[in-house]
Design a protein that fits this description.
By secondary structure, the chain is α+β, with helices and mostly antiparallel strands. Helix content is 36%, strand content 22%. The protein is built from twelve helices and 18 strands. The longest helix is centred in the middle third of the chain and has 21 residues. Bound molecules: zinc ion (ZN). The site of zinc ion has 5 residues, from helix 4 and helix 5.
Length: 393
Amino acid sequence: MPNCRPRLPHFIRIIPVLTVACVITACGGGGGDGGAPPPAPPPTPPQASDVTVDPGIVVLFETDRRSVTATVRDANGNILTGRTVTWSSLNDAVATVSTTGEIIAVSVGTATIRATVEGQQGDALITVTPPISTYEDYKAHFPYQETSGQFIVSSDFSAAFSQQHLEHLMMTWQYFSALYLGSAGTYTEMYYTRDLTGLYSRIIATCPTTIVVGGRNLTACFDSQNGVYIWFVVPYIEPDFGTQLHEIGHSFLYFTQFDSANWPWFNEGISMYWESGSFDANGSYSVTAPLPYLTSNFRRASNANALVPLPTLFQLTRNQFYGDPDPAKLYSQAGMLLYYVSKQYPAVAQALIESINNGQIVNNNAVIDYILQQTGLTITELETNYTQYALQF
Ligand SMILES: [Zn+2]
């Protein structure tokens, strides 16, 4: 099953919450009257000056629900938190909104959903369309559209956000599609959506073909009548292509002959490699250093004398690999092995992907045989070399 992904959060990031304690001290320097200084007046909290609702434009099918959020800023543009937001609909017959900002599409039409904070207002424009009955209906759900290279690209994010991120999306596409040629057919349309629920329930229900393939972030619907693929891209948590590269890398593998269930170390290793790089403003992808996640976990396992020998790593089943008590160790070994091959033998890495892509390499043993044959290393040398390489970071 192409959607059978590991459920483990294999690279959880912990975002430190920076708490700034603002200590306001009473001025005690200029007293002089000998009495106790008067208590400091409580600081005046900044007033809300601007409210924006995100997304500002929402297109929903009848009976759909979607939550929107309000951002409150003071006169200097600083975000204010903890303010009470009052939600209201200016047209309850079309769309209602809960006290937490969840919109329910009631009937076809348009409505303004308003967030009010301390007398300031922000609006979202809601368009409710008839219930979906065709694939075309679903695609009409995406309000922003532009032509980008070979694609018509559409998005259900705001226009400003879409323009910024669609560009990055196309960089990602161009890079990976050149590596993973995928199946026959051309690619004509790409939809960039936060509508994860709608994507799976509606695309699977209405895709004009029998084929829906993809991972969590990238799903393709093949229109066999026209011989074209239509792609749907779901950003990973929040749009952040630095981390999405990992998941996008997984997703592209699903479009090759690659059967990730049988090669978990390769699946994870190559995705860790992709995640290690980034795109520059011109769309060039480069990897300058392995992820700290890889190097630190590798070093930790090495120090504990707990690295898994390569022949064992290669033979772990998917459940053994992803279900290991210390998966970070295995991800790091796989990642650093493929990082080593990619950096030291880039032509071998490229040809390896091509050979998987065209079905010449179809299992673990063939991957290893290929690497050994092309690099001229023995398995012992490969083990020694990649370990030494990984520990230099
Ligand atoms: Zn992964």
